[in-house]
Amino acid sequence: MNSFTEFNLLGSLQLTLTAKGLEVPTEIQLRTLPLLLSGRSVVGVAETGSGKTLSYALPILHHLKTLENNGNRVTVASQPRAVVMVPTRELGEQVSKVMKLFTHETRLRVRTVLGGSTMAVAKKSIEGPFEVLVATPGRLIQLMDLSLIFFNDVRLLVFDEADQMLDAGFLPDANRIAEACPPDRQLALFSATVSDNVQQLMGKL
Asked: Measured between alpha carbons, how far is 89 from 102 in angstroms, rounded to an integer?
């Protein structure tokens, strides 16, 4: 495939890709987009800056907007349909920014719960219905412990920069978050390296 147009993405996503001048997929996008769009779970090994955010952002938005177009809207508060786990606040803000490029046309709602912000900010961020949550593990576990966020409708779970997340000691949190999601959820794990911790998470999930 030489163009994003060959992935048969929703017109609303293709409009934004064209408007942003994004035409040719990178190697990681070429390898993972068809699998994620078909409902498969994937492990993608790619260095930072390889374009992996779009590799999962486009399938997430395509799947969730398709559900909405078919009359299955998110109406329940604090119950996202996609969760993207990131190791740092900086990456979370970057991922959220990329995804929000595509929400002007899709009208999907992306919220963030990131370390470094107050609990009051985190609580406000997850009020009301929304589709996508971008989060760091520690803050998300706190909200789970307070029964403020619910994962029973999660369709896609992404671990981005998994090696960084797990090397920072988040393996138990990652497992707990995954276990809170339905067993048939789609999983995407992206990592620059496949460390022992990443292998352990892959083996468990």
From this structure: 21
Q: DSSP of the chain, one letter per residue?
A: --SGGGG---HHHHHHHHHTT--S--HHHHHHHHHHHTT--EEEE--TTSSHHHHHHHHHHHHHHHHHHTT----STT--SEEEE-SSHHHHHHHHHHHHTTHHHH---EEEE-TTS-HHHHHHHT-S--SEEEE-HHHHHHHHHTT----TT--EEEESSHHHHHHTT-HHHHHHHHHHS-TT-EEEEEESS--HHHHHHHHH-
| Both tokens assigned to 117 | 């912000």
CB atoms within 10 A of CB 45: 17
Single-letter amino acid code for the residue at 184? D
pTM: 0.94
CA distance 67 to 62: 9
Alpha carbon distances (Å) from 183 to 25, 178, 191, 203: 31, 9, 22, 15
> What are the pLDDT digits (tens) for 7-53?
999 999 999 999 999 999 999 999 999 999 999 999 999 887 788 99
195 φ/ψ angles, rounded to the nearest 5 degrees: -80, 175
